[in-house]
Every structure is written in C-alpha cells, then in structure tokens.
Design a protein that fits this description.
This protein is α/β, with parallel strands linked by helices. The protein is 42% helix and 11% strand. It folds into 2 domains: 141 residues, Rossmann fold, CATH 3.40.50.1000; 67 residues, DNA polymerase, domain 1 (Orthogonal Bundle), CATH 1.10.150. A 6-stranded parallel beta sheet has the order 3-2-1-4-5-6. β4, α8 and β5 form a beta-alpha-beta unit.
C-alpha cells in the first residue's frame, strides 16, 4: 500500500461491540410481529444490510408491509434497549486517531442507518475523528454489495488502490473486494479466520492493530 491515502472503517463489530445486540434486536422484532427466527441464523448475517438479512432469515421482504413493521420495531428496540449499554472495543478511538495522525483520511463505511451511525461512532469515541461518514442511506444496495464502499471512497477522494478497509465480517470483505479495496479484518466481531479469508491481514481487534501499526499494511 505504498500510495495509501484513505482508511475506511466499518463500525459495528469493528469499533463497537454491538453485533450480538443487533442480532437480539432483530430476533425480538421478528417475534413481536409474530415471526420466530433462530438467533444463530440472524447472528451469522449481522454485517449485511437489513434489507438482505430479513428475507434470508424469514423470507419477508423489507419493503413489504410486514417487513417495514419489523424493521421499524428493530430500530426502536436497538435504540431504546441496547444502544445505551454498548461499549467500544478497547483501543477503538485511539486506533482511528493514530491512523488520522499519520495523515490518512478516515471515513466510516457502515451498513447502519444514518440515525444509528452517529451514536455508534460516539460510543467508539471516533465521531469527531472521522473525516466523513457513509451509511446505508448513502448507498442504493447494502453490504455485501460494494455501494457503501464506493460511496466512502468518493467521500475520501481516494481511488480503490489507494484505500484499505477495516471490518469484521465476510460481508465487509466481499463488499470491499468487489470495490477493488484491500481489507484488514478483526476477529472481535465473532468470526473465525476461515470466514475472513480474503483479508490481507487479521487482528484480534483495534487494540491489536494499534499495538502493531508499524508492522501492519497501514505502515507507510
């Protein structure tokens, strides 16, 4: 990455320990609308957009009347029940700050809705550190489609070859690679190394990459 100019950050499961919370919110929202789905099926799809998760686990499309009710219920449950208790992964804000201090542009590239992304970045201690932010509202198609990554690249003013993404799920890897962007993966989101194949490097979490920054693909 000799011409590296930008780093694109996923947020959920990467900077904030929120993947389980999202899964529980989905399961409860489905249940409240009379649909029972197994937690494990939902958990393995956290990281892709809700518009893709919903039909995969239930056969219900998000743009249907029932789907819209489930999506709205999930948002309420997550915001009221889970968001106030979320914690950042150790070193999350410090990692973003250290990368920005190296003169690299840092942009959030998240499948979260815009109204959830800001508070998540506040939890991470990174909201004021980001040069810009992209959410699912900025993309026509959600992860693992590459639209969010393309939008983040545009906001960073970077070419795909000059950027790297940091994420925690196979959906981050698929989205970034389809956009021509290399990926660093974190294990802290709950995925095994075999699931994260395709990443140029894998670390335990923000604290691990921060400790080894000078020997990482981000070293310049």
């Amino acid at each position: 990455m000799t011409h590296l100019t930008a780093v694109l950050f996923d947020v959920d499961g990467t900077l904030v320990d929120s993947n389980d919370a999202h899964a529980y919110a989905w399961v409860q929202a489905f249940s409240d609308e009379g649909v029972e789905v197994p937690f494990g099926a939902v958990r393995r799809r956290i990281g892709m957009g809700g518009d893709k998760l919903m039909p995969e686990v239930s056969g219900i499309e998000e743009d249907s009347t029932q789907g819209a009710a489930i999506a709205a219920r999930r948002a309420t449950i997550f915001r009221e029940r889970f968001l106030p208790g979320l914690q950042p992964f150790r070193g999350a804000g410090q990692l973003v700050a250290a990368i920005a201090a190296r003169g690299l542009t840092v942009v959030a590239a998240s499948s979260a809705k815009r109204d959830e992304l800001e508070p998540l970045l506040e939890v991470a201690g990174a909201n004021h550190l980001m040069d810009d932010k992209t959410s699912s509202d900025d993309a026509e198609a959600s992860k693992p489609d590459p639209d969010i990554v393309h939008a983040a690249l545009a906001k960073a003013g970077a070419k795909p070859a000059d950027a790297i993404m940091i994420g925690d799920t196979p959906y981050d890897i698929d989205a970034a690679r389809r956009a021509g962007v290399a990926v660093i993966a974190f294990r802290c989101g709950g995925w095994a190394d075999a699931d994260l194949s395709g990443a140029v490097a894998i670390y335990d979490g923000p604290w691990d990459l921060l400790a080894r920054l000078d020997d990482s693909p981000l070293a310049r």
